[in-house]
Write a structure and sequence with these properties.
Length: 246
């Protein structure tokens, strides 16, 4: 990536089309499937569950899910360039489906059949929300995205967000949307992606104590830990109904 590229470009379609035109080798943001599979297996336990991977890029993550037995994995990305390449790459794998559309407007994208309400058991996001937050009107667009994720999830379905965003920032963002989630927090060492540790500092499948403001996290894992945060947001339609009625 060019050093002069502004992070604001991460939210732009032209940037990703250009990048994937020039970089065809698979790349996984933040973490790969082997490092996250214990958590995916925990919250998406049935291999028949339908999963949506948003901002898939040319990552091998979805391929890893299919290799692990998941039978219905849908990938979306804003870049038509990478989706064309992914469709060619996985043409012999019917378990993997790829579509070019923006996660902020899933239901409005032209030439793509809209995903129906409550049509997925899990939505997985490795850095897509972070990319949206780099762009202009980031609060509006991130709220739109979260509301679309909530819409396409089944009740009790999970939105698994892998991010660099600490709880005091991300929990505030969740509250700004009209969605209702039950949220759990996990952390994973950043170093696990490049060079797995013999003994990880934190147990991936064990949630970190999380209060409403996220202030409890520092006492559990310290200040500025070298981790990726993983928010497991469980859709709670009943809670939204209660909130709307209040």
């Amino acid at each position: 990536m060019a050093a002069e590229t502004s992070t604001q470009s991460y939210s732009e379609k032209w940037y990703w089309d250009d990048r994937y035109t020039n970089e065809s080798d698979p790349f996984d943001w933040y973490q790969n499937y082997p490092s996250l599979s214990p958590l995916i297996n925990l919250y998406v336990p049935h291999r028949t569950h339908r999963a949506l991977v948003i901002g898939c890029g040319n990552s091998a993550f979805s391929e890893g899910m299919v290799d692990d037995g998941y039978g219905d994995v849908v990938n979306i990305d804003i870049s038509s360039v990478v989706i064309d390449a992914m469709n060619k790459k996985y043409s012999d794998r019917p378990q993997l489906k790829c579509s070019s559309l923006s996660v902020t407007i899933i239901q409005f994208e032209e030439k793509v059949v809209a995903f129906q309400d409550a049509s997925f058991d899990a939505v997985i996001d490795k850095g897509t929300l972070d990319s949206i937050l780099c762009g202009s009107n980031s609060r509006q667009h991130s709220t739109q995205m979260l509301e679309e994720v909530w819409r396409v999830l089944k009740d009790k379905g999970v939105y698994i967000l892998i991010t660099y965003g600490a709880p005091n920032y991300r929990l505030r963002l969740f509250k700004e949307s009209s969605c209702s989630w039950t949220t759990k927090l996990h952390v994973i060492d950043k170093s696990l992606t490049a060079q797995p540790l013999e003994t990880p500092k934190w147990e991936l499948t064990k949630p970190i104590p999380l209060d409403d403001e996220g202030s409890s996290v520092e006492s559990a894992i310290g200040k500025s830990p070298d981790v990726h945060y993983i928010y497991v947001c469980i859709k709670d339609a009943a809670l939204k109904t209660e909130t709307d009625a209040a």
